Amino acid sequence: MTRHFDAIVIGSGQAGPSLAVRLAQAGRQVAFIERAGLGGTCVNNGCIPTKTLVASARIARQARVAADYGVVLAGEVRVDMAAVKARKDQVVGQSISGLEDWIGRTEGVTRLNGEARFTGPRQVEVAGETLTADQVFINTGGRPVVPDWANAAGVPVLTNIEMMELSALPDHLLIVGGSYIGLEFAQMYRRFGAAVTVVEYGDRLIAREDPEVSDAVRALLEAEGIEIICGARDFALEKAGAGARLAVTSHGVPRIIDASHVLLAVGRKPNVEALNLPAAGVALDARGFIQVDDQLRTTAEGVWALGDVNGHGAFTHTSYNDYEIVAANLLEGEARRLSDRIACYALFIDPPLARIGQSETEVRASGRPALKAVMPMTRVGRARERGETTGFMKVLVDAETKLILGAALLGVEADEVIHGLLDVMAARQPYTLIQRTMAIHPTVSELIPTLLESLTPLI
């Protein structure tokens, strides 16, 4: 039996459900396919659950330092990991239920469960049934990379997926990977009370950032008691008692780390293998992601790829923006493009790191005349009031056009404050617009104009 739809949406990450509903509201008949639970990585084992855990870890830290603020708590601060997990599960469950209800009550959306596989151009097989459509949208996301040396070891290892199921505190959590996922887990589990070691292949943490950002993040994590080993090579993992032992060399020096649990956070790869993309005429790029043009069209006519699977951003917000681009172009006659959006993301350690636009390294490489301003968080009244003065704010501006090129904010509420700069960038207005705007006191944002007043040539 073959059924025809106006559109087929494969996958339920951040782009898929919104697109399926939007198309249905526009009067189209939509087949919506998901092989597992609704919500993709963000809802099930990414943003929502990890930030819920981060919130619990922050409360644990605040309780431990309460006396510094004149608040006396009786007895030792204890973390009930089973209760922490239960709270996380509740938040995730609410998100999934909301999606279930939204999809279920949208007329025109037919939900199908199973693994989707192309059997021809715009022809998909799922659960023994063949579907055809005028348009197909792929939103199958990605998954954690598990390197060969870890697979060969025969040692149980965790990824962000399995970490969501922990209900007991590890004695010693060894994290391989010193980037965003690894560092968020490192800080939260250290605050829960585990010993934590981070092993990173690169010579510094979060190597895509400027060196002073990496150094500042390393310093704040080490101040909380997290051991960090960079420049790691020659990985060898083996079972050791009830746990595991990792042998590496760091800058030529042998290191042995014994741990009760091992978390791998060394990257992600797209979920494309089961799709049988050659049958659809959909090509992959050199990195193994689905190749798309500036409007997210694949190499096959009538097929689009959105979210992590296309390699143009591995964030919830980039996936959702993919949906916005496709919906606007198809349903509203617009001509929105990937290349129009400004890079923006955050590392949700505490305090958070927020980044927009170009880094200083990238600005220098461009050769354009630029201005730079840096301000320590010790200058910020809100930070001093809270006793959270770690970090700094940095902004880069084009010296000729006065347009903001990029910014890095590491500090209290940085993930919210940076949107003021991002909005000015998106509006393509000069930095003087925000510099001359009166801000509310006492806030972190009120120091942005002061920061911009200190711009000097980038030498």
Average pLDDT: 96
The CATH homologous superfamily of the largest domain is called FAD/NAD(P)-binding domain
Question: How many strand units?
Answer: 22
Structural class: alpha/beta
* Overall tally of domains: 3
As residue ranges, the low-confidence spans are none
Helix content: 25-40%
How large a portion of the residues is in β-strands, by DSSP E?
Answer: 25-35%
Under the CATH scheme, the architecture of the largest domain is 3-Layer(bba) Sandwich
Shape: globular
CATH topology of the largest domain: FAD/NAD(P)-binding domain
Cα distance spanning the termini: 68 Å
CATH class (first level) name of the largest domain: Alpha Beta
Q: Characterize the main sheet.
A: 7 strands, mixed
C-alpha Rg (nearest Å): 24 Å
Number of helices: 15
Would you mind describing this structure in some detail?
The chain has 459 residues and is of the alpha/beta class. The chain is built from 15 helices and 22 strands. Strands 1, 2, 3, 4, 5, 6 and 16 form a seven-stranded mixed β-sheet that branches. It has a six-stranded antiparallel β-sheet with strand order 17-18-21-20-19-22, sandwiched between helices. Helix 1 (15-25) packs parallel to helix 10, helix 3 (47-64) packs antiparallel against helix 4 and helix 3 (47-64) runs parallel beside helix 7.
